[in-house]
Amino acid sequence: MLRFLKGVVGGVSGTGLKDLPYNIGDPYPSAWGSWTHHRGTSCKDGDGSPVSIFSLSASNAQDSLLAAARNGVKRLRTVRHPNILSFLHSTEVETVEGSSSRITIYIVTEPVMPLSEKIKELGLEGTQRDEYYAWGLNQIAKAVSFLNNDCKLVHGNVCLASVVVTPTLDWKLHAFDVLSEFDGNNGNATGPMLQYEWLIGSQYKPMELAKSDWVAIRKSPPWAIDSWGLGCLIYELFSGMKLGKTEELRDTASIPKSLLQDYQRLLSSMPSRRMNTAKLLENSEYFQNKLVDTIHFMEILTLKDSVEKDTFFRKLPNLAEQLPRQIVLKKLLPLLASALEFGSAASPALTALLKMGSWLSAEEFSVKVLPTIVKLFSSNDRAIRVSLLQHIDQYGESLSAHVVDEQVYSHVATGFSDTSALLRELTLKSMLILAPKLSQRTISGSLLKYLSKLQVDEEPAIRTNTTILLGNIAIYLNEGTRKRVLINAFTVRALRDTFSPARGSSSYYDVTEIATRILPNVVVLTIDPDSDVRSKSFQAVEQFLQIVKQYHEKTNAGDTTAASTGISSIPANASLLGWAMSSLTIKGKPLEQAPLASANSGLPLSSRTSNASSEIVVDSPSIAAVQINSSTDLADQPVPESPTSTDGWGEIENGIHEEQGSDKDGWDDIEPFEESKPSPALVNIQAAQKRPVSQPVPQPKAQATSLRPKSTVKVTKDEDDDLWGSIAAPAPKTSTRPLNVKSATTLDDDDPWASIAAPPPTTRARPLAAGRGRGKPSAPKLGAQRINRTSSSGM
């Protein structure tokens, strides 16, 4: 039978007991009483989470140590409090060694460390030490008050050895072997109230307990014995050594002055006059310090209103620098992360979280901070989302590519279409860090679609930075996507933007694209109204020409690989890029009223795009004309083939402009640039401008068509460029509908007067009365009345 028990219950393996799902590690140098405190790990689910294992052995099953240990196991299992050690598991094992047997009791708890060892490890001094001691004593006083006042229990041996510390630096009370009920109401009882009081060291016993005066103990308040023990704990803490005898408690040199009076009341020689631990928490000014107040606020955060939370979290980053660093990282940081994760913290708390996280190593940051940040991206709180994007440079590099692509991007992308310009702007800037971690599928299928729409955003700064972002993430695009997207993004949109900084851009181009598509568009900007754009344009033209010259020299030298030579960036635009990225937001607000250094900066953007004033027509007609001509010429140039794309730029490149269903490609609000039809006879039109206006004689359309063959269209256009350059209207800059909506039906395309005819009236004027003015007389009202009268009589 003993062999069976030994194999099934009492067997010991190299890593742990068979019926104990935990691995027993190395012991700590100290523990309370006869217990041994081991480090340990859990075997459940293979997670290896840390635990603490307490063991006590005896050779006799009837040993009083085992009886007291069983009492401690029972009490620890049933008493639950935040400041009392958390019980996980217990077992009792009998092992047989030769002819003798040994019984061992194991208690498994949350991972803790003896307080004496943790104090040595932290090495705190001065004010920071006193603040941490105040916080710890506050927690132990709460535990003792709970036992004495709420549970009517007496711990019996509160001292330094009965306190342990968690990984978050919380102090917890344990060593419940002596714990007993307080039976002060039983006046007839004469036996010992504390059955295992012999386990208490003589130096920790108050006078009545040392004399075993159980009558006086029962007449005393429930907290009398434990208040004395709390005084012993205070002495051991500040003196830095274990209490040797009771007389040493009279030495108060090491006790803080703010705590001295309460210390003396805890150690009163009269049990009835000893201070209740609950009163200690309420009255002592020693517990009123920054660390205690901060942690206390965090623990009752859900009870605070939004104003208190906002004020607290705005002060927390500076306050954290004044607190003990280890306590901030191990106590405040987990509390803050939990509050953010469960929604009880305000958005300013993220700033404090990241500041505390900056004090961690990279490995600890990935474990303690990043999981919370990833969860916050799914928050619906706009303030949280804005704060995440504003600080993405502090944690973005720590995010793995898989987490960004699978968990983060889908939530961040909602900001591209947000109604808040600030959120759209911050989302755009965040792509500078997140885009390198995205897969090609996500970039081509999602990101480029959003960027194509942001290039026509109502905010000028967002349009500009979209162009800049495209240049920065070009290296992360595959070659096919790069050729299909970047040329159209820069030439079709960026170079024609009404916002002058958006017209300075660079990207990845090969020589063919530079010569046929880039230079014709960039040269236009050398006469831009904005001086900064003009200077950047000249620099860009010079650099692009340098590339073409290098290609020419390599071609003459017989280098066949020169055709693929390109440029990845233009250093001359570095200052422009820096301006756009740094000036996008000012004090948390979008750059909606950014000053534009252009010739017509005095007008708002809406007026400059919609009002056809004489000043605009004079300043910019040549630019608009050249842009339209160059885009028409580029349409005849060969374009690198690429597969059908869904990124929002492929349709422009292939010349497809669908009227319906354009919401999916992101180009629905861009009007295609079409070349206006030239007049059939410029000489006749110029002569007509000098003659009085008269009604033109309509001519048959078929005859006009035969007189103007299609082969002469381009020749006429080239000859008319110089003649019409001074009076040509600027190209439309917005997608607004022209005033002459019915021109297609009222004017003949071959009518030589159609191009200079006045537009139809935009309002409905009342017809002139008969006999007034030169208008045609209206029909007499009498006839109309007669008709009505006749019809009514017929009925």
TrEMBL record:
<dbReference type="InterPro" id="IPR021133">
    <property type="entry name" value="HEAT_type_2"/>
</dbReference>
<dbReference type="InterPro" id="IPR000719">
    <property type="entry name" value="Prot_kinase_dom"/>
</dbReference>
<feature type="domain" description="Protein kinase">
    <location>
        <begin position="1"/>
        <end position="287"/>
    </location>
</feature>
<dbReference type="InterPro" id="IPR016024">
    <property type="entry name" value="ARM-type_fold"/>
</dbReference>
<feature type="repeat" description="HEAT">
    <location>
        <begin position="369"/>
        <end position="407"/>
    </location>
</feature>
<feature type="region of interest" description="Disordered">
    <location>
        <begin position="630"/>
        <end position="795"/>
    </location>
</feature>
<dbReference type="GO" id="GO:0005524">
    <property type="term" value="F:ATP binding"/>
</dbReference>
<feature type="compositionally biased region" description="Basic and acidic residues">
    <location>
        <begin position="654"/>
        <end position="667"/>
    </location>
</feature>
<protein>
    <recommendedName>
        <fullName>Protein kinase domain-containing protein</fullName>
    </recommendedName>
</protein>
<dbReference type="InterPro" id="IPR011989">
    <property type="entry name" value="ARM-like"/>
</dbReference>
<dbReference type="InterPro" id="IPR051177">
    <property type="entry name" value="CIK-Related_Protein"/>
</dbReference>
<dbReference type="GO" id="GO:0004672">
    <property type="term" value="F:protein kinase activity"/>
</dbReference>
<dbReference type="InterPro" id="IPR011009">
    <property type="entry name" value="Kinase-like_dom_sf"/>
</dbReference>
<feature type="compositionally biased region" description="Polar residues">
    <location>
        <begin position="733"/>
        <end position="746"/>
    </location>
</feature>
